[in-house]
Amino acid sequence: MEKIVVGLSGGVDSSVAAAVLHQQGYDVIGLTLWLMKGKGQCCSDGMVDATRLCDELGIPHHIVDSREVFQRYIIDYLVSGYQQGVTPLPCSQCNRAVKFGPMLQYAREELGAERIATGHYARITQDLETGRYQLRRAVDPSKDQSYFLYDLTQELLAGSLFPLGEQPKTETRRMAAELGLHTAAKPDSQDLCLIEHHGSMQSFLDKYLAPKPGDIVDTQGRVLGQHTGIHHYTVGQRKGLGIASSHPLYVVGFDVGRNQVIVADREVAHWLECTVNQVNWVSVAAPATPIRVTVQIRYRTQPVGATLFPLPAESGITDRARILFDEPQFGVTPGQAAVWYSEDIVLGGGLIEPFVGAAPAQGVPTHEQTGVR
Questions:
Q1: Among 159, 268, 276, 340, which one is least packed by beta carbons within 10 Å?
Q2: What is the pLDDT of residue 140?
Q3: In angstroms, what is the C-alpha Rg of the chain?
Q4: Residues assigned a catalytic role
C-alpha cells in the first residue's frame, strides 16, 4: 500500500482528493500548512475543517507552521512588488516555494511518503520518449488551474498527483455529497487567500504600506487628478480613478520616481509584445529558437496566439523571453505571469517585466520575417 500525503486546505476540492485516494486504497495522510492567522481556506478555520475531515476519514492529520516562509516568500514579495509599481502574482510563487516544495520535502523526510496530492484542477502525464513530466490543463476548462502551476519543477511534478484533473467541478461536489463529507456544500475560496483573509487587496496592502499621495497624469504629463498611493492601482484599471473625464481612462503605467499613476484612452492600453523573466520551462526543455505558442497573460483571460523568442541574459537577469502577440493585448500587466501552451500542455511561463511606453514596441521581428508559424 503506497503512502501518500494530501495537502488539505479545508475546502471541498482537497477533501474529495483525500477521500478518493483513501477509497482507492492509498495510505493517506492529511497535511495542512498554517500560513496565516484568522479567516480563509489556508488559515485557522481551514485547519479546523481539515482536522474534522481527517477524523471523518479515519486518517492522521499533520499541521506544519509555515507562517515564516509564507511571510518571506509571499507577503514580503507582494509588498515589495507593489512598491515598485508592479502587480505581483503570488499564487504561482506560493505553489512552488511555500506549498509543493516544502510539502514534498516534509512528506519524504518526516512521513516516509514519496508523493503528495492536492485538489488542484490540472493533469500530469509523462512523455515516454523524453521521460519528462508534462503539466496539462484540467478537463474542466472553467476550473483549470494549470496557469498557477507553471512554475513547478520536474521533480515536483514527478512527486505530485492531481486526482480531480480528469473531472468537472460538478462531479466533485456530487462525490462530496455522496461520501457525506461535511465540506460538500462549502463555498469555493477566492482565487487569492489574502483577499479572503483581509477583505480586499487594498486592505491587505494598507497594513504594510503607508498612504503616499501623488499625481494621476496622462501620457503627456498633464495632471488629471490625485491618487493615494501607486500600490492601489494596476495596469488596465478603469474604475476607482476619481477622474472627471468625458471618456473612460485606464491605467497604462507608473512613474515610481515621480510617484505618478499614468492613464490613457483604452486603445493606448494595448501592447503587441512583452518581455518575461524568471522563465520556467516545465513540460519541455528550453528551445534555442523562436516557437509558436498560445499565451495567457492572466488567469481568467483567453489564450491568444503568439511567437516566443528566447532571450540571452541581460543585466544579471536570466531565463528571459520575448512574446510577440498576433494581435495587441489589453492590460498586459508587469508582475503577472504569462503562461504559454501547446494545445493543453503547459510549456512554460514567466513574469512580465515592466515596460516603457504603451505603444507596440519597435524592433521585434514580425512573423513573416522569422518564418515561425
A1: 268
A2: 95
A3: 22
A4: 94, 193
Query: What pLDDT, on a 0 to 100 scale, did the predictor assign at position 314?
Result: 72
Cβ contacts of residue 348 below 8 Å, gap of 6+? Answer: 150, 279, 280, 281, 282, 283, 284, 286, 339, 340
| CATH 3.40.50.620 segments of the chain | 3-198
Which pLDDT score is estimated for 373? 38
- Listed residue (44, 155, 56, 38) closest to 103, CA to CA: 155
φ/ψ (deg, to 5) at 362: -95, 165
Write down the number of H helices and E strands in the chain: 11, 17
Backbone angles phi, psi at 62, to 5 degrees: -115, 140
Domain 270-370 bears CATH identifier 3.40.50.450: no
Is residue 35 within 8 A of residue 198, CB to CB? The reply is no
Which residues make beta-bridge pairs with 64?
A: 33
**Residue 357 pLDDT:** 43
In the chain, residues under CATH classification 2.30.30.280 are 210-267
Spatial distance between the Cα atoms of 264 and 286, rounded to a whole number of angstroms: 37
Which CATH architecture best describes the domain 210-267?
Roll (2.30)
CATH 3.40.50.620 correct for 3-198 = yes
Q: What's the rounded Cα separation, in Å, for the pair 217 and 296?
A: 29
CA-based torsion, 123, 124, 128, 131: positive or negative: positive
Q: 3: number of CA atoms within 13 Å, CB side?
A: 14
Residue ranges of alpha helices (H) inside the chain are 12-23, 44-57, 67-70, 76-83, 90-93, 101-110, 154-158, 169-178, 193-198, 201-206, 367-370
How many other C-beta atoms can be found within 10 angstroms of the C-beta atom of residue 362?
8
Measured distance CA(263)–CA(43) in Å, rounded: 37
Nearest in space to 166 (alpha carbons), one of 143, 189, 191: 143
